[in-house]
Specification:
With about 800 residues, this protein is an alpha/beta fold. About 35% of the residues lie in helices and about 15% in strands. The protein folds into 3 domains: about 325 residues, Rossmann fold (3-Layer(aba) Sandwich); about 210 residues, Thiamin diphosphate (ThDP)-binding fold, Pyr/PP domains (Rossmann fold), CATH 3.40.50; about 180 residues, Rossmann fold (3-Layer(aba) Sandwich), CATH 3.40.50. Strand 23, helix 22 and strand 24 form a beta-alpha-beta unit. It is elongated, with a radius of gyration of 31 Å. It starts with a strand and ends in a 9-residue tail after the last helix.
């Protein structure tokens, strides 16, 4: 900025800032006569909107009273803790203003994604200017009192965060963690043919791994049936303390990079407001014209070549319009403008005076009337109703979500004449049902996979659709389709982010992944779970469809991949989140998997994690039994234990959760029933892991009395678990019989080996479970010492066989449940 005023260092007692140099405040500027598509009136009005939004943004960071500066600023008007980020806000406000111009002139259906971190003051300000904020929060009226409330709540206890969050009107993108904006934008555009997403990407954000991969999302956007994304790369050159990579490489290199990703960038650069407005208007118009032409060609001329999509590169100063110099240090245009340019405004009279001049430089008397409301000229720049980006129902996905058309899963169930009499690949059985779910919901359901759909046995889906692919299709490619309903890209980040954007804007989907590699999106899952949790407390946010994971190729069956592919720890990550949001299911066979997933696709506002194997596995329950068992979530399998006379208690409880642990538990039960017929055994299978949590902590939890009824209050419990053993202890530590609970699970022992050798490495095998029973049932160690020794020998024999023959010993590989009657 030019025509700056210098504020001398203050030496009063109120000045405790310890300045070492001058502080310079910006002064009001006059718009230059920069050429461009905007006439003088349009230019003046757009600039006024931008100034108003900037004023409101600065006020949110600093003020808790005196919002219109009707008296000189005093310490009591300033927040005691100055939290927030101004550096990125002017760029966000600039794009919002120009997007509104396009919405009005073109009747666009548009939403806004603010990718730069902690840019919340900008969308908050724009939502207030548009009136949406006051409609959703009646105590924040569009007047002086409402402006005070808007300011006071920002980054304040009991208020709203400094980034875009569920409380932010018009936002469906959580701004607390960087890297996901472009994926959310593209996910929103899928199956929304009339939607335009203005997505501002911070140049710091652009350095993250997820964002670097997400430029390729344009290879999955079909111009004929999807909406459009207009990426705006905001290059303001700095992060918290360092320059950004993309802002410091030569422009020719940057343009070549973006063209290589499949975009045609338009550069907007400068610090003169009039010139930047004119250039931005030109760029936005050019991009939207090009998007319209791409879509027309695809929809009317059947052009199916992948287009080169337009985008904007916006180079403006960091903290544009803030004080250029503070305490002798350059601020505007440097990393020092990233957060709070005047950090001592409450305690330092010099800073406070500059803050007041900074706010007055926006000329608020021209922007707000005597009541504090935006002037009629500003209100005339606001689109009507749902065309406001802050009010677009797309950004409140629960307002648009439609129930899926789900075929009756029972028609896909497998026949189970007796427990263990048949075997199926559970996920292949599920895949037949998901095939028909896909066919029945051609614009409302997508499946995402990092090149693992067929590997996880869901390839039946590809009989009714192809893999979405907008790039070149080669002669030998299989099942690639411009309109495919499966998105396969070898980036877990992209799968997760696209699905999140799809769900957050009102649709449904599934993400299937190898269990070990779902950890790649731990942080993304965390942010989505936090969004669900926070948005549940926002009255106007409506529940969205659940985020549904299907984790297969799991820890116990990595026969050729080995140690690198063996990690069940995502369950531990998930269970750190709010109990009201997360659900974890471990169905033991094909029919229980079908029943579980039908429930998941009908649910709302959860994260459902389902772990199921893809290898042939015994079928234990019929369709009707699966319904009952999955409805309970946990239950006694009477047919697997002893049906002694009423009133007797078991001597031991064999519990299991997961398909392989269930198999090993039943095999152990069969050995015990044969060798120790007087031992009373109870087998308890867990499908819904949250049933182990006390009812006070999770809505699915069992009461203490219910838990004791299943697991007893004093008998040994040998629990075979799919994941890390300590997770079960964590869930059940408050239970009466926790001291009697002994858990076997994965303990970080793995390699490329056979299935049974894998369970032996982790002491989860049937022989070790029998040994645990002998060791823990009172008096049994002495009476069953011979059986225990046999089990030790059986383990040694199985290990030796594997080492000699390369496969599991036949007695294990060919084992069947020996009892046919239920």
């Amino acid at each position: 900025m030019t025509d700056q005023a210098t504020i001398s260092e203050d030496t009063s007692a109120d000045n405790v800032g310890g300045h070492d140099g001058e502080t310079i405040a910006p002064q009001p500027y006059l718009l230059s006569d920069a050429p461009g598509p905007l006439n003088r009136e349009e230019l003046t009005d757009l600039d006024a909107w931008w100034r108003a939004a900037n004023y409101l943004a600065v006020g949110q960071i600093y003020l808790m009273d005196n919002p219109l500066l009707r008296t000189p600023l005093e310490p009591a008007h300033i927040k005691p803790r100055l939290l927030g980020h101004f550096g990125t806000v002017p760029g966000l406000n600039l794009i919002w203003a120009h997007a509104n111009r396009a919405i009005l002139s073109r009747d666009l259906d548009a939403v806004f994604v603010a990718g730069p971190g902690h840019g919340g003051p900008g969308p908050n300000a724009c939502g207030w200017l548009e009136g949406t904020y006051s409609e959703l929060y009646s105590h924040i009226a569009r007047d002086a009192d409402g402006m005070r409330e808007l300011f006071a709540q920002f980054s304040y206890p009991g208020g709203v965060p400094s980034h875009c969050a569920p409380e932010t009107p018009g936002s469906f993108h959580e701004g607390g963690e960087l890297g996901y904006s472009l994926l959310h934008a593209f996910g929103a555009a899928l199956d929304h043919p009339e939607l335009t997403v203005f997505c501002v990407i911070g140049d710091g954000e652009a350095e993250t791994g997820p964002l670097a991969g997400s430029w390729h999302a344009n290879k999955f956007l079909n111009a004929a049936r999807d909406g459009a994304v207009l990426p705006i790369l905001a290059l303001n050159e700095y992060k918290i303390a360092n320059p950004t990579v993309l802002a410091r490489i030569p422009e020719a290199e940057l343009v070549a990079l973006l063209r290589g990703y499949g975009y045609e960038p338009i550069i907007v650069a400068g610090d003169d407001p009039a010139a930047v407005h004119q250039a931005t208007a030109t760029a936005v118009d050019s991009c939207l014209d090009r998007i319209a032409e791409i879509q027309r060609a695809a929809r009317e001329d059947d052009v199916d070549e992948r287009p080169i999509w337009p985008m904007i590169v916006l180079r403006t100063p960091k903290g544009w319009t803030c004080p250029p110099v503070v305490d002798g240090e350059r601020v505007e245009g440097t990393f020092r403008a990233h957060q709070v340019p005047l950090p001592a405004a409450r305690t330092d009279a010099g800073h406070r005076a500059v803050l007041e001049q900074w706010l007055r430089s926006y000329r608020p008397q021209e922007l707000f009337d005597d009541t504090g409301a935006p002037t009629p000229r500003l209100r005339a720049l606001v689109p009507l109703g749902d065309r406001r980006m802050s009010a677009n129902p797309v950004s409140n996905g629960g307002a648009l979500v439609r129930d899926l058309r789900l075929p009756d899963w029972r028609d896909y169930g497998v026949e189970v004449p007796a427990p263990g009499a048949t075997a199926h690949e559970a996920t292949r059985v599920l895949g037949a049902w998901l095939r028909d779910v896909t066919a029945a919901n051609p614009d409302n359901f997508l499946t995402f996979a990092p090149d693992e759909l067929a590997s996880n046995r869901l390839q039946d889906i590809l009989t009714v659709t192809g893999r979405n692919w907008q790039a070149e299709i080669g002669e030998y490619d299989v099942k690639l389709d411009r309109t495919g309903r499966v998105v396969e890209v070898l980036s877990e980040h992209m799968c997760q982010g696209l699905l999140e954007g799809y769900l957050l804007t009102g649709r449904h989907g599934v993400f299937t992944c190898y269990e070990a590699f779902i950890h790649i999106v731990d942080a993304m899952f965390n942010q989505h779970a936090k969004w669900l949790d926070a948005s549940a407390a926002v009255p106007w946010r409506l529940p969205i469809a659940s985020l549904n994971y299907l984790l297969s190729s799991h820890v116990w069956r990595q026969d050729h991949n080995g140690f690198t592919h063996q990690d069940p720890g995502f369950l531990d990550v998930v269970l750190n989140k709010s109990p009201s949001i997360v659900r974890v299911y471990l169905p033991p066979d094909a029919n229980t998997l079908l029943s579980t997933y039908d429930h998941c696709l009908r649910s709302r506002h959860y994260v459902n994690v389902v772990v199921a194997g893809k290898q042939p596995q015994a079928d234990w329950l019929s369709v009707s039994e699966a319904i009952t068992h999955c409805t309970r979530g946990i239950g006694i399998w009477d047919w697997a234990g002893h049906n002694d006379e009423t009133g007797t208690s078991p001597d031991v409880v064999l519990a299991c959760a997961g398909d392989v642990p269930t198999l090993e538990t039943l095999a152990a039960a069969a050995i015990l029933r044969e060798r120790l017929p007087q031992l009373r055994i109870r087998v308890v299978n867990v499908v819904d892991l949250m049933r182990l949590v006390p009812r006070e902590e999770h809505p699915h939890g069992l009461s203490d009395s219910e838990f004791d009824t299943l697991f007893t209050a004093d008998r040994p419990v040998i629990f075979a678990f799919h994941g890390y053993p300590w997770l079960i202890h964590r869930l059940a530590y408050r239970r009466t019989n926790h001291s009697g609970l002994h858990v076997r699970g994965y303990k970080e022992k793995g390699t490329t080996t056979t299935p049974f050798d894998m369970v032996m490495l982790n002491d989860l095998d049937r022989f070790h479970l029998v040994m645990d029973v002998v060791d823990r049932v009172p008096g049994l160690r002495e009476r069953a010492a011979g059986l225990r020794q046999e089990m030790v020998d059986a383990r040694l024999a199985a290990r030796a066989w594997t080492r000699e023959h390369g496969v599991d010993i036949p007695a294990v590989a060919d084992w069947k449940w020996p009892y046919r009657a239920r």
